[in-house]
Amino acid sequence: MVSLSIRCPKPSTLSTLSRCVFYRPIHLSSAKFTVDERVKTKKTVFLPSTTFVNHVKSTERGRMDQEISEKGRMDSLYEWQLEERRDGKTLELMDGPPYANGSAHTGHAINKILKDFIVKSCISRGQRVVFRPGWDCHGLPIELKITKNTEGKSAIEIREMAREVAMSSVSGQMNSFKRWGVTGDWADPYLTLSPHYVSTQLKAFSRLIDKGLVYRDHKPVYWSPSSGTALAESELEYREDHKSTAVFFRFKVIDLLPSSLSLTTPSSKSHVIYALTWTTTPWTLPLNNAISIDASQEYSLIQFDDQSKNPIVELYLVATPLLESIATQFAPRSFSVCGRVKGEELDGKYYVGCWLKDLGHPILSSPHVTMNMGTGCVHTAYAHGFDDYAVARRRGQRVEVNVDGRGRYIRNMGHDLEGMNVLGDGTKKVLQLLKKDIVMTKPYTHSYPYDWRTKKPVIIRVSAQWFIDTQLLSEKAEKSLEEVQIGAGSSDMRKSLVSMVTRRPAWCISRQRVWGVPIPSVTVVGEEKTMTSFELVEKVANMVKMENDSDVWWKKPIDEFIDEKVRASLGSPGPFEKSFDVMDVWLDSGLAWICARKEDMSGEGKLQSDCVSEGVDQFRGWFQSMLLTSVALQDCAPYKRVFVHGFCMDDKGRKMSKSIGNVVDPDTITDGSMSQSALGADGLRLWVALYGAESAGESRIGPQVLKEVEKKVG
Questions:
Q1: What does DSSP assign to residue 280?
Q2: Which of 8, 365, 439, 516 lies 20 to 30 Å (CA to CA) from residue 559?
Q3: Which InterPro entries does the record cross-reference, listed alphabetically (predicted)?
């Protein structure tokens, strides 16, 4: 027998602990004795009497799990060890909050049960363990759930509806986690919607402002037309099977004279020279501002052979190193090289725009042009690309945005395009209107970013947003990870996190939604500039705490926030009006290292949890946001150890998907179904032990895997 050296006041507590550490009871086979021997043994050996059932029927497992959960035995174990070991060594396991949306799924099971293994193994070794479960309660998915019922509703009403959805999910998920035998502070979990959490988050945010890390700018961001908001890189998922229409499009060059070039074409004919571009976002063609080239490269002038007998010679400028690639793209259509020109001679030339024909646009040399694909002449739309925007900034150009928050062309684009969705009918209309200058179109399958919540494609769009300057933090973040253990088992995954943090662009932290933590900011009435300050955010944080209400920014008039100290910090006499952007949910959960504590510990020195344990996908999410905010505010990592586990796949190695029909509900494992015997919480926990912690890759589940688990459960 395995004994647990724990001083325990009640036998029931030890029984509960034993049941949850081990997946099923351990029974010793009965030896065969004669009747006399049994009687004799009974008289000479003290054996405790018990009502313990030797075998639990499959149909009874779910009911018994529920009974244990409702009696709160996991709570009593947690409370007991906190109290009894008050003076002992304490280990803190920080909970990465699951999203308060929907029911518990197998991904939750892996995560929470693995954490429970850590908690119970440490308790069994005599340690005092602090594990406060939490929930990430804000964000778009909750708001989307209530969208159908929000027409005509005020912001306060929408927030109240969203709060009800979040709290309902918290209750349902908590019940599942407790049924699975997970031990923790269930009496007082942390919720990112609570006034205490929001107040602490706002105070931390004011410190980020005070350190000069928060700024507002017009920048290109990933924009979700389906959500109507900006997204951070961590809120994207890339689909490898996205289909676009790739277009080879020509722009007529104005001031590159054929007579100045050495051409093999007949000089007696008129010549027209075009810059040949290639794009997979044809909806941006009417928004074109420039053509980017590489001035250090040589460019060729090509003529398609099937046009050689035309009365007017049409020549196309393409980069010489890409001739072979272009020939492959156009095959079987062939072309001939009729001349060459240095890239530096093209820099500064002009061409005719495809939308407003009376405007000339520049050909410019830019470092982002490569010779890997395309034509070497890069269509550049300042408002719809990161490199494109950089070209505008270098030239000091004003950037106009002619696509609205729903991904539709605005009135400035004229009657033909106004109101059309750029990713839908807008693209078709553009191809129709500009067909004269389309040289070739081809279907193109490639990796493309999607909104991870709505599962719809995003666009790049310039908009005014709030950012955190991650470049100022990346070096500190890398250094802080030197002492942190990161990985699964013996594998060291530190380089993965370092690579992502150091390559991360500025963090866009504002969202154009109602349900979230506000970014307290104001604009002067009649002006466009939006501003904030340390003093304004502190004022709001204090009011949230004093009123015990996270909605005060929406409820109270602006004058209650603008005292003389705040007015002076804003540098303007006003009058002001409130701005209602909310914070990125990754900033909410990313500040859990300080906000999830029961008391304000901002002055208690460095706050580091001993361990965090999340899925491998959190390298792009919570691991980063926690690290960046902690480095910004306390110059160290928020954790000492990062244990990484895999994500759930079916037994054929496919990602769980409702459309495939391979999603496994944990309830079918614990309670059974038509095709599956009930394995109870022990069966679910055994599956996690066998498959959930194998690696930081795949944790497989499906009919075949569950049959193997069932054999072991017995």
A1: S
A2: 516
A3: aa-tRNA-synth_Ia, Ile-tRNA-ligase, Ile-tRNA_ligase, Rossmann-like_a/b/a_fold, Val/Leu/Ile-tRNA-synth_edit
